[in-house]
């Protein structure tokens, strides 16, 4: 079956199915109830006619059956009307005029009872009859007589049909009315959604900044989510834009120097050119790292220990001939909701830098202090002066030519930590080398919660 | 020492090859993943330089295939993406070192030499066999403090024997590790070169094991 695409069609289809089922079931029940009631009334009428008949019949002076006076109902005088009566004695019988020459097969009743027995039969003309039969003994006679009154069931069927017609019309009207009501209800119910669509269109066309609160319980969290998504996207775009223009500006200086050296020759110019190239490379690498950062947002918690383990494994392999021991002292319970790749980048660059300088030992420790992530990487290398530390964290100044790319890693970490609104501080470690301490602030509360706080 | 360069950028690949040749190694170039996987699985390389952004089959997959086929040569991955995520993926696939583009050619050569040395079981960059010393970084032989003057081809042969000093290296193995794939290798030339090296060494430490190959220094028990 094809899936129904429209929300409105879904709701309407649902209502249609349910209204149709309810109407059909209700119709059948009502029709059945009416039939039962109508037939009972008909049967009661036949029963009372039998009683009347019993009252009218007596024996004359010769002991013959006779009707004291006519039964009164004109149906019984109308030939083949289907309304017949008979009184059947052992020798003789009385019959209604309407019966004329017909022979009715009468159900044989052998017991006398206070009420007539009622059944369905057909007369020889094929008409359906309701038959009431009662056995009674007349005063002054010893033989029991059989009193029979029949009614034309056609009358019942006419009633049934008339009722069914009315029922059908009424139920159809009711069903249509219900569907119409459902339509109105859907329209009314979905109005916030339509508004939402209009608002999103407004945002896309730049007429609005974010979604306004709809004050619809079911949609509030959606609105909050969309708003947080919009905010996140805006931040990303702003960062990207700033980053692109930063990059362009940063590249202009070395480019200008290169341009001025264009026609110059000699070792001095060559050295200057390669220095400018190195500067450009650093600029590009840093900007790439910043551009690739996912940044804060709604992330699921990431365990820190496995990241440290994985990176330590890789670095141990790279520095295989220097036998550096990387101690991972981060408890396995420490996790922080950030982009996993960003965390890998922070831990990776810190560890890489530490391994580059370490003599034998690198120590990683970490903890959560009131939801703040504190991550410390230390080495037993020569350490760095305060001035160097400041430069490393600040603008990634190239302060050592012998280790290619050194300082860049710390600058990248500094940038990333900044994106998360955290801090990177460098100090002297008790191991002798550098102690790099990263602190990331507690994660943002979920936007749904914030959304509700606004209201 | 024979190195596979899997890099699709023709200019860069050629420059790497030149740098490696200058450092006394031979190199084959695979311009795409299919070729790289095939060469890496069929030829006996001492190391590989693997670009992660190879066409047809990406570098990581190639590396995984090599390791699955039990090729254990050290692999240095090159990547234009400097994120740690990429490096970790490389390590997990079985890489031994990484360099991000752009890189200094000297850095690549130093790292590659270190990888080759380590994979032959030497921790120090200076290899010694008796009084014969090889400074792998400088690509220079010394005997008793006196430099041994070798041609490029002679250096390649002796360097390979030096990395596997004490082990009998078969003629085929030596040829495979000293000549590039498309080189016109002649067994007689090898004998001539071996003869010349012998003359340049003050003591007869390079011996021929009949029917097996060559051995530098005193033969030791095979591992």
Short synopsis of the structure:
Chain A is of the alpha+beta class and 455 residues long. Chain A has helices at 7-56, 154-189, 191-204, 217-260, 267-292, 304-318, 340-357, 386-394, 408-419, 447-454, and strands at residues 57-59, 65-67, 84-88, 93-95, 117-122, 128-137, 144-152, 301-303, 325-328, 335-337, 361-369, 372-379, 423-428, 434-440.
Kindly list the characteristics that best describe this protein.
heterodimer; A: 455 residues; alpha+beta; Heat Shock Protein 90; 5-stranded antiparallel β-sheet; 5-stranded mixed β-sheet; 14 strands; 51% helix; rod-shaped; disordered C terminus; B: 223 residues; alpha/beta; Rossmann fold; Arc Repressor Mutant, subunit A; 2 domains; 4-stranded antiparallel β-sheet; 8 helices; globular
3D architecture notes:
- The complex is a heterodimer of chains A (455) and B (223).
- Chain A is an alpha+beta fold.
- Chain A has helices at residues 7-56, 154-189, 191-204, 217-260, 267-292, 304-318, 340-357, 386-394, 408-419, 447-454, and strands at 57-59, 65-67, 84-88, 93-95, 117-122, 128-137, 144-152, 301-303, 325-328, 335-337, 361-369, 372-379, 423-428, 434-440.
- The two termini of chain A are 43 Å apart.
- In chain A, 24% of the residues are buried.
- Chain B is of the alpha/beta class.
- Chain B has two domains: 2-119, Response regulator (Rossmann fold, 3-Layer(aba) Sandwich); 126-216, Winged helix-like DNA-binding domain superfamily/Winged helix DNA-binding domain (Arc Repressor Mutant, subunit A, Orthogonal Bundle), CATH 1.10.10.10.
- Chain B has eight helices and eleven strands.
- Chain B has helices at residues 10-22, 33-42, 59-68, 84-93, 105-119, 152-163, 171-178, 187-200; strands at 2-6, 26-30, 47-51, 75-79, 97-100, 126-129, 132-135, 140-143, 146-148, 206-209, 213-216.
- In chain B, strand 3 (47-51), helix 3 and strand 4 (75-79) form a beta-alpha-beta unit.
- The longest helix of chain B has 15 residues, at 105-119.
- The chains are: A alpha+beta (455), B alpha/beta (223).
- Chain A binds chain B through residues 281, 285, 288-289, 292, 310-311, 313-314, 317-318, 320-321, 340-341, 344-345, 347-349, 404, and chain B through 82-85, 87-88, 90-92, 96-98, 100, 102, 104, 107, 114, 117-118, 123-124.
């Amino acid at each position: 079956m094809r899936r129904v695409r429209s929300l409105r069609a879904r709701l309407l289809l649902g209502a249609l199915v349910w209204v149709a089922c309810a109407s059909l079931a209700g119709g059948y029940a009502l029709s059945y109830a009416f039939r039962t009631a109508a037939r009972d009334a008909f049967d009661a009428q036949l029963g009372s006619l039998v009683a009347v008949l019993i009252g009218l019949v007596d024996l004359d002076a010769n002991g013959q059956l006779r009707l004291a006076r006519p039964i009164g109902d004109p149906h019984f005088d109308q030939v083949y009307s289907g309304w017949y009566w008979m009184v059947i004695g052992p020798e003789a019988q009385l019959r209604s005029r309407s019966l004329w020459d017909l022979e009715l097969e009468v159900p044989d009743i052998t017991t006398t009872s206070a009420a007539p027995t009622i059944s369905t039969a057909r007369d020889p003309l094929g008409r359906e009859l309701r038959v009431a039969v009662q056995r009674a003994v007349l005063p002054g006679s010893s033989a029991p007589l059989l009193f029979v009154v029949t009614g034309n069931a056609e009358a019942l069927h006419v009633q049934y049909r008339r009722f069914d017609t009315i029922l059908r019309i009424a139920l159809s009207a009711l069903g249509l009315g219900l569907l119409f009501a459902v339509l109105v209800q859907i329209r009314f119910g979905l109005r916030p959604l339509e508004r939402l669509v209009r608002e999103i269109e407004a945002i896309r066309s730049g007429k609005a900044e974010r979604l306004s609160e709809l004050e619809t319980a079911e949609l509030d969290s959606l609105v909050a989510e969309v708003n947080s998504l919009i905010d996140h996207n805006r931040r990303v775009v702003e960062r990207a834009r700033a980053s692109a223009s930063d990059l362009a500006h940063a590249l202009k200086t070395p480019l200008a120097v290169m341009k001025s050296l264009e026609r110059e020759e000699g070792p001095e110019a060559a050295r200057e050119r390669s220095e400018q190239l190195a500067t450009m490379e650093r600029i590009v690498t840093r900007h790439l790292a910043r551009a690739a950062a996912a940044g804060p947002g709604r992330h699921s918690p990431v365990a820190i220990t496995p990241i440290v383990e994985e990176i330590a494994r890789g670095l141990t392999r790279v520095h295989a001939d220097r036998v550096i021991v990387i101690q991972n002292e981060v408890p396995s319970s420490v996790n922080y909701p950030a982009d996993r790749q960003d965390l890998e980048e922070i831990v990776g660059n810190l560890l890489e830098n530490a391994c580059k300088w370490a003599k034998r030992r690198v120590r990683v420790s970490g903890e959560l202090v009131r939801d703040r992530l504190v991550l410390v990487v230390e080495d037993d290398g020569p350490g760095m002066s305060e001035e160097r530390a400041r430069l490393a964290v600040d603008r990634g100044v190239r302060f050592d030519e012998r280790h290619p790319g050194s300082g860049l890693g710390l600058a990248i970490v500094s940038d990333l930590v900044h994106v998360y609104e955290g801090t990177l501080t460098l100090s002297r470690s008790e191991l002798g080398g550098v102690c790099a301490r990263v602190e990331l602030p507690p994660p943002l509360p979920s936007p749904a919660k914030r959304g509700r706080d606004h209201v | 020492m024979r190195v596979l360069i899997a890099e699709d950028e023709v200019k860069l690949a050629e420059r790497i090859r030149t740098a490696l040749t200058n450092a006394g190694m031979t190199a084959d170039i695979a311009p795409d993943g299919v070729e790289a996987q095939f060469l890496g699985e069929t030829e006996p390389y001492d190391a590989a330089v693997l670009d992660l952004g190879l066409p047809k089959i990406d570098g990581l997959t190639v590396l995984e295939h090599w390791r699955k086929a039990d090729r254990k040569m050290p692999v240095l991955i090159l990547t234009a993406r400097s994120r740690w995520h990429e490096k970790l993926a490389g390590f997990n696939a079985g890489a031994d070192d990484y360099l991000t583009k752009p890189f200094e050619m000297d850095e690549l050569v130093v790292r590659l030499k270190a990888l080759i040395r380590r994979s032959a079981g030497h921790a120090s960059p200076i290899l010694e066999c008796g009084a014969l010393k090889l400074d792998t970084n400088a690509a220079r032989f010394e005997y008793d403090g006196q430099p041994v003057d070798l041609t490029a081809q002679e250096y390649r042969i002796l360097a390979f024997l030096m990395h596997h000093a004490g082990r009998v290296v078969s003629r085929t193995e030596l040829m495979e590790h000293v000549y590039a794939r498309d080189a016109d290798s002649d067994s007689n030339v090898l004998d001539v070169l071996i003869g010349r090296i012998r003359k340049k060494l003050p003591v007869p430490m390079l011996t021929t094991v009949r029917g097996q190959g060559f051995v530098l220094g005193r033969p030791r028990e095979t591992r």
